[in-house]
């Protein structure tokens, strides 16, 4: 018999799915459904620890009530496609409730399981080296759609996720409210340490300060990719509206406000931004900065003409920065063969 639910589900982007709700909100919800308050705690554990995909999975609930609420939307996606690279990196295409597809990557090492999450469906930033940027933008993700990606990878690997990086599809600072909310859920409800969460941006005016005001103890990464404004504009069209000088000033402010260092990401593109003089120029730009530089040798995509530098060029760039006393490391890509779509995402070995 179809039973009318006391709280109606909203649209896929609406917040009225269960995933993403706090313990208190879930407790209120079960009470609205005429159940005792302790069922809220059970629901919370099944959502965030056991990764329940449907209320009918929750075997501690009475059978008759499970039957009543079995169609209530929890907010989980479906795995549309999964590919596994020889290095065990897994790329997922996830189908959201409204049928749109996003991608997520699970990157295992002996000690860590890192998830590279998307924050938008597509991306409006149009970075020249990025496959996601070439595909345009559709919509922002809701907090539960970000959290779902982590739970999906956790379930598929049958292992706890230790780190999350916002380096998949989308520019996280364009969806700041949902990203901050997802960060808090991942920390408080899924149990991932704040410092193991990384928010990465290409930089947007005023947004870095907005993020700093939240005082999250997350790792903050800024995609520089160029040592000067002219080249940055070529690689990241949105940089036209945000001069490198202003971006670096805002990064300084971020360090002051949060007392946390900034990570600078620098994708190395052969013959474009990997010359010795460009390493020198970069060193001058960020000298004295409380920062760490990640050099990421580029993974070629068919839509762009860029190439990956050889190891001699990579090492030469690295050595110059080290001689200039810049804290720097090279991050080699994982899961190249999985053909993950975003330039940042494919570089996400953490
Ligand atoms: S690199 Fe990131 S910000 Fe740039 S287009 Fe790709 S997804 Fe968007």
Automatic annotation (TrEMBL):
The active site is at 103 (proton acceptor), 342 (s-methylcysteine intermediate). [4Fe-4S] cluster binds at residues 123, 127, 130. Binds 1 [4Fe-4S] cluster. The cluster is coordinated with 3 cysteines and an exchangeable S-adenosyl-L-methionine. S-adenosyl-L-methionine binds at residues 170-171, 200, 223-225, 299. Its main location: cytoplasm. It comes from the Bacteria. One of its GO terms (molecular function) is 4 iron, 4 sulfur cluster binding. CDD domains: Radical_SAM. It catalyses: adenosine(37) in tRNA + 2 reduced [2Fe-2S]-[ferredoxin] + 2 S-adenosyl-L-methionine = 2-methyladenosine(37) in tRNA + 5'-deoxyadenosine + L-methionine + 2 oxidized [2Fe-2S]-[ferredoxin] + S-adenosyl-L-homocysteine; adenosine(2503) in 23S rRNA + 2 reduced [2Fe-2S]-[ferredoxin] + 2 S-adenosyl-L-methionine = 2-methyladenosine(2503) in 23S rRNA + 5'-deoxyadenosine + L-methionine + 2 oxidized [2Fe-2S]-[ferredoxin] + S-adenosyl-L-homocysteine. The keyword Transmembrane helix does not apply. Gene3D superfamilies: 1.10.150.530, Aldolase class I. Its cofactor is [4Fe-4S] cluster. Its EC number is 2.1.1.192. Specifically methylates position 2 of adenine 2503 in 23S rRNA and position 2 of adenine 37 in tRNAs. Reaction proceeds by a ping-pong mechanism involving intermediate methylation of a conserved cysteine residue. Belongs to the radical SAM superfamily. RlmN family. This is Probable dual-specificity RNA methyltransferase RlmN. It comes from Gloeothece verrucosa (strain PCC 7822).
């Amino acid at each position: 018999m179809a039973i009318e639910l006391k709280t109606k589900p909203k649209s896929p982007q609406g917040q009225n799915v269960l995933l993403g709700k706090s313990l208190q909100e879930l407790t209120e919800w079960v009470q609205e459904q005429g159940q005792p308050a302790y069922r809220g705690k059970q629901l919370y554990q099944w959502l965030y620890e056991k990764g329940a995909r449907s209320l009918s999975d929750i075997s501690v609930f009475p059978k008759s009530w499970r039957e009543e609420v079995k169609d209530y939307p929890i907010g989980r996606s479906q795995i549309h496609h999964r590919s596994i690279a020889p290095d065990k990196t897994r790329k997922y295409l996830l189908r959201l409730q409204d049928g749109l597809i996003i991608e997520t990557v699970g990157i295992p090492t002996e000690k860590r399981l890192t998830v590279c999450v998307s924050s938008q469906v597509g991306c409006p930033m149009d970075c020249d080296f990025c496959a996601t940027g070439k595909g345009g933008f559709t919509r922002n993700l809701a907090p539960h759609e970000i959290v779902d990606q982590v739970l999906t990878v956790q379930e598929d690997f049958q292992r706890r996720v230790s780190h999350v990086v916002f380096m998949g599809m989308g520019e996280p600072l364009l969806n700041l409210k949902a990203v901050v909310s997802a960060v808090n859920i991942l920390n408080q409800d899924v149990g991932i340490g704040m410092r193991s969460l990384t928010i990465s941006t290409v930089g947007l005016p005023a947004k870095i300060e907005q993020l700093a005001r939240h005082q999250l103890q997350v790792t903050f990464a800024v995609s520089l990719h160029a040592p000067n404004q002219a080249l940055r504009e070529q690689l990241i069209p949105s940089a036209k509206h945000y001069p490198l000088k202003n971006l670096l000033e805002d990064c300084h402010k971020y360090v002051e406000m949060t007392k946390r260092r900034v990570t600078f990401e620098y994708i190395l593109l052969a013959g474009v931004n990997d010359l010795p003089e460009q390493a020198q120029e970069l060193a001058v730009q960020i000298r004295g900065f409380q920062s760490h530089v990640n050099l990421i040798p580029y993974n070629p995509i068919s839509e762009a003409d860029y190439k990956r530098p050889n190891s001699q060029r990579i090492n030469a760039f690295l050595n110059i920065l080290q001689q200039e006393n810049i804290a720097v490391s090279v991050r080699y890509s994982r899961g190249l063969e999985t053909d993950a779509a975003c330039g940042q995402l494919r570089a996400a070995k953490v």
